[in-house]
Write a structure and sequence with these properties.
The protein is an alpha/beta fold. Helices cover 25% and strands 22% of the residues. The protein has 9 helices and 19 strands. The strands form 5 sheets. Strands 15-14-13-12-11-10-8-7-19 form a 9-stranded mixed β-sheet. A 3-stranded antiparallel β-sheet has the order 1-2-3, with no helix packed on it. Strands 16-17-18 form a 3-stranded antiparallel β-sheet, with no helix packed on it.
Amino acid sequence: MSPPARWWHLLDDGRLQCDLCPRDCRLHEGQRGFCFVRAREGDAMQLTTYGKSSGFALDPIEKKPLAHFYPGSSVLSFGTAGCNLGCRFCQNWDISKAKEHDKLADQATPRAIAERAKQLRAKSVAFTYNDPVIFAEYAMDVADACHAEGVKTVAVTAGYVHAAPRAELFAKMDAANVDLKAFTEGFYEKITFARLQPVLETLEYLVRETKCWVEVTTLLIPGHNDSEGEIDQLSRWMVEKLGPTVPLHFSGFHPDFKMRDVPATPAATLRRARRQALSAGLKHVYVGNVHDVEGDTTCCASCGETLMVRDWYQLLDYRLTEGGACPGCGAHLAGHFEARPGTFGRQRFRVAM
């Protein structure tokens, strides 16, 4: 039998309702939720992927992407299988749409993951490739083990989660990159089979009520969520609700999964979106999946001085003083920094447990 899961209750009609995310899946005996990995066994919910992984890799933290969380450091990344969204454009569909027995070859206890991260001198462990919301119990146990070893934790998530599990999960995360897929309910309903509002609520909660460092990513898909009007609305919402110093990443789409007929995002679209977001008042806007040194550069929110220059995931220049302050005006850059940046660079390699 799989390990027990949390956040569920039995209904009067005999079905079991999962209370983890806004899907509220209602299951008969033997059924699984939309995510496929949370299953009813008897009168309880089980997490079928606990302790199992689709693989481990050591990455630069900038790849998550996180630009203001210990720049230049390495992060031990892993995921499981399944997802509670149904994105037609999923760039990790072979993992997120997999049955757990299809992809999960590596097994590791929370303690083993924390010890391996420390052995590799990884600054943090990232729950990524698929959404940690659906394996929250496992992610939380890994986070506890990591913190006992002095290792930070990072969630790469779509933020589609109910309030109670959201509070427990993110209380154990040091940083999160939240995928804001688009800024219209129509896109979420038709393209991701989910809803926008719960994601916006998660973002506001994380920024306003937790100590978790937050950055936001939007994958721009030509003809679907890349219009000037939508980018303007998204950017202005972030300024008003999250504040101007929360970093926003615009990433380039490539044809994949069920949207192979849509062209890749032109670099010009990403650069235009970045200019719009900066004009709307956001201070830290980046572009991803294209080569753009200017779009990877961090400037002081107060005086505009260049603070960090990157080429892909490689730090070329780092001018922050101790404590993360601008050497020009002394203003502190929002985020988490050490006296010296990491030197991990662009490398990436698979890790055996």
